Fold each of these.
Amino acid sequence: MDEDESLRRYGLRPSGAHLDEIRETLRTHAALERRAQGEGDTELMRLCCVQLFNAGDLDDVLTIWDAKRSSWDADSSVDVQLLCGAGLEETKAYLTTANPPEALAALDYLQLCEGGPATSRASLWSRGHVGTRTTTRIEQRALPPACAICVQ
């Protein structure tokens, strides 16, 4: 599956019934990227992360983080803001209490980015705002190099 097919099949705001398929696609491509950079489809990975972001489920934060950290290209493709589908403060609270060591690494990274150019408008980190801006960009077939917040 490529990003066009995923977009046709699930849209940007997929139903709950499709989220497990999206998570599995993301995990599969992240594993391919870890094996060898370029084997996974990082544009599809980014779209999966946007779809999961729009679902706003805190349980997806570490899945998105794992995908982001799977390769240099994936790290550049998956914006840190996509960790925050449930909201910035909610995500930070979740990462503070999550058990895996990756949670602390994600929290450290998020806090490092907070207040920088990528997150200078942290109050806008809500599913509605980012999802709407990202929707427009994806529909134009120009996936943003950075989250929609960054390009305002």
Amino acid sequence: MTWLRALVIGGISLLVPGAGHALLRDWLRAFAFGGLFIVAGLFFLPTAEIAAADSFADSMTIATQETERVTQFLFSFIALFAAIDATFRALGFPPGRSSDDADGPTCPTCGKELDEDLSFCHWCTTRLESPPASEGETAGAVNATDESRNH
């Protein structure tokens, strides 16, 4: 399931850079890749000619014919880099972050920090088992129950 999820997120990010990161709730990277793609479009695409086109097909024809190969490479590079980054992050390979950095408990499936009040991971919705009580706590609880019954 993790591979399928990572491939879907990578495919979405390839179509719309930043969208895969938004699905991962990695907002900073989502806005960075999406913003970079939009800013590159504003600077390198013939926006006046595209806006003056009569139909969507005409605007796409203008966009492909009027842009240089270097510009097409730039857009392809941004989309491909966003897709690769989103795929690796979905697989649990965030660069520069280890499980030792987290302050509290982490999810066994996605590795992100957990909210101690919840019985599931709010990032990937994995059900969490409650930690088993130690033998001393269990024995003390049984003794207290037995004493209350005797009195």
